[in-house]
Amino acid sequence: MDKHAVSARAGRCKAVAVVPFQSPALDHVRTTRSLLLAYLPTASPRTGTQPRRKDSAMTPQPEPPILGEDLLLLLCRPGPAISAGGEHLLSPALAGAVLIDLSLGGHVRTLPGRGGSTRVDAIAGHPPADDVLRSAWDHLLGRPREVQAVLAAVGPSLRVPLLDRLVRRGDLRRPSRETFGSVGLHDLEEGGSGRRDHVLSAVRTALVDDVEAPDRTVGLAALLSGTGILRTFDPEIPWTPMVVARAAKLERDVWAARAVADAVGRSVALALVGNVFVAAAVLF
């Protein structure tokens, strides 16, 4: 084959090679891709790893403190208001605080009982939102109960969950050292939230300055008086005749505080009787 024929064939092949491939389907894909790239936002390069913002709605928030927590918080201090041997008095006091909260929230009502006693009745269809209060409300639902029976039934189960709440909120700290058994009030440390000072200041203002106080503060002051613990707060709350008189008046006005005072009085009387029998057995 001469070189003129080879050159002609090469020219024909070169002409075929530059003809573009035509396809309607491929044109449609290219057009769609161009539109998507035009409308999609262009991602900017990250300059560094940034912490993801936490959504406050996803973070569990502590429930509002109830009166029993405020009472327990006041009793936990370097010089404990209740000695390790007298913590059995805490049970009726915490139960009284729960009854005051239920009463202030309109969840229970009082009815006259036998011999001038007081019965407590849960108002059906109006349960409290708080879990601790709801448990006590469930116990009362169905029939009225004598207030002393309610204090005895509700009180023993309150200490642990209320302490856990105070620790979770940062109002109290558990001891760092290893302990066996339950932690006493004298072993707990203030958490640094400052809420104890706020609660104490409100009670002191109500008793010392004799100003009109919120119902919760009145109930708390009445409970401190009814348990006989108020005098141990001197000098934070001066133990003066005027303060004693005001506290006694608040105690008379709050039915749950009167019930707690009766329960504490009975407990002390039983303890004294027990000591007498022990002393008699030793002597004779």
Characterise the protein shown here.
- A hairpin with a 5-residue loop joins strand 1 (108-112) and strand 2 (118-122).
- The termini are far apart.
- The chain has a single domain, classed as Orthogonal Bundle (yeast vps74-n-term truncation variant fold), CATH 1.10.3630.
- By secondary structure, the chain is mainly alpha-helical.
- Strands 1-2-3 form a 3-stranded antiparallel beta sheet. Strands 4-5 form a two-stranded antiparallel ribbon.
- 54% of the residues lie in helices and 6% in strands.
- Helix 4 packs across helix 5 (131-140).
Write the layout of secondary structure elements.
Blueprint: H1 3-17, H2 24-39, H3 67-75, H4 90-104, E1 108-112, E2 118-122, H5 131-140, E3 145-146, H6 147-154, H7 159-169, E4 172-173, E5 189-190, H8 195-208, H9 215-226, H10 241-253, H11 255-283
Antiparallel strand pairs: 1-2, 2-3, 4-5
Overview in brief:
The chain is mostly helical. The chain has 11 helices and 5 strands.
State the name of the first-level CATH class. Mainly Alpha
| CATH A-level architecture | Orthogonal Bundle
The CA-CA distance between the termini, in Å, is: 145 Å
Shape: globular
Q: How many helix segments? A: 11
Identify low-pLDDT runs: 13-19, 43-59, 270-284
Average pLDDT, rounded to a whole number, is 78
Work out the strand percent: 5-15%
Counted up, domains total 1
Overall number of strands = 5
